[in-house]
Amino acid sequence: MGQALWVIMIVAGPPLILMFVIGFVISIIQTATSINEPTISFIPKLLMLVLFLAIYGAIAGDLLIDYTRDLWMHIPDDIR
Asked: What pTM was estimated for this model as a whole?
């Protein structure tokens, strides 16, 4: 169970932190410029997420594949 939580933190943590930071920066810019349009933050978040996943997606995918393979390999051990 601990390993599953660690894998979740490694895979989901960086994109969530990135989206938080981008949203925070855009909200500060919107507050400073008095632009009250909620859809403005959507495009930068989407573009940064796509760019981030293009870079980080292979690492996260390999980690998930290794974890799943390890889980399947240890099923017979847990049955006994």
From this structure: 0.75
Pick from 9, 10, 47: nearest CA to 26: 47
**CA-CA distance, 80 to 61, in Å (whole number)?**
30
Nearest to 64 by CA among 2, 8, 24, 25: 8
Do residues 16 and 58 make contact, with C-beta atoms less than 8 angstroms apart? no
**Tally of CB atoms within 10 A around 11:** 17
C-alpha radius of gyration, the chain, whole number = 18
- Reported as a single tens digit per residue, the pLDDT across 49-60 is 999 999 999 999
